[in-house]
Amino acid sequence: MYEKLEAIVLHTVKYSDKNSIVSLFSKERGRISLLLPQGLGKLAKLRRAMFLPLSIVEVDANIMPGRDIFKIREARTIEPLHDIHINPYKNAIAMFIAELLGRVIQGSEDNRGLFNYLSVSIRLLDSIDEGVANFHICFLYKLGSFLGIQPDTQTYFSGYAFDMEGGVFVPFVRRSATILTPEEAGVLMLIDRMTFANMNKFKFNRSQRNELLELILRYYKLHNSTLGAMKSPDVLMHLFE
After folding, report:
1. Residue 178: CA count within 13 A, CB half-sphere
2. Cα separation, 185 vs 181, whole angstroms
3. Residue 63's closest CA among 73, 71, 55?
């Protein structure tokens, strides 16, 4: 049975000489995998371009019970992303986000709140001129609320540390691999005030931004065993001043 699905492309891998498998996060069915025919013609090249990471597409997919990979009848681009695919800074951020989402989104259940957040975020990344260097920090921190791992800022008091395992602020006793010092906890509260609207106001140098990224990824890895080692953060850490 063919269904019309709105989806965000996560990644594409070669399956055979004739087909690739494209992994998507759909509004209606969560994460799905589709069989993407390959070829050398103009139509095949256009279709491959349509399924670049973070592309927002509409597909007619043959959803059949008991199968993990479905066939595509038609596919259309919903939102052309011009800048993400040509701007090296935005493209590096897109590669990072796509890799991260490909690891943390595993279920096939409907999660429209998360889909809407991702859809809005991707469109924003494509359109903005200011604050690009901080986009991945803001995106990653806000994403936590949709994954159920957002820090409980209601437990914060000045001088408290942050327990990364529990996701709460606690009186500081000693530092450990999962306890952030009061100074680091204060930085976490600073990021909590960051939004897509004001992220251009936060002035970090490369070292500070990289430390923030490493800190948030450490937190994610504590709460998501599928994250593992990622390749794309290394690229981001060398791009922005």
Report:
1. 10
2. 6
3. 71
DSSP H helical segments within the chain, as ranges? 42-50, 82-86, 88-104, 112-127, 132-147, 182-192, 206-223, 232-236
Q: Contact 45/20 with Cβ under 8 angstroms? A: no
User: Which amino acid makes up residue 199?
Assistant: M
Q: How many Å apart are CA 124 and CA 214, to the nearest integer?
A: 24
Q: Specify the higher pLDDT residue, 173 or 121.
A: 121
User: b/e map of 165-194 (b: 16 or more CB within 10 Å)?
Assistant: eebbbbebeeeeeebbebeebebbeebeeb
DSSP state string for 135-155: HHHHHHHHHHHHHT---BGGG
Q: CA-CA distance, 111 to 124, in Å (whole number)?
A: 20
Q: Tens of pLDDT along 10-26? A: 998 888 778 889 999 99
DSSP state of 94: H
Cα Rg, the chain, nearest whole Å = 19
Boundaries of every domain in the chain: 128-241
- Closest-CA residue to 143 (of 178, 182, 98, 78): 98
* 112 compared with 237, residue with greater pLDDT: 112
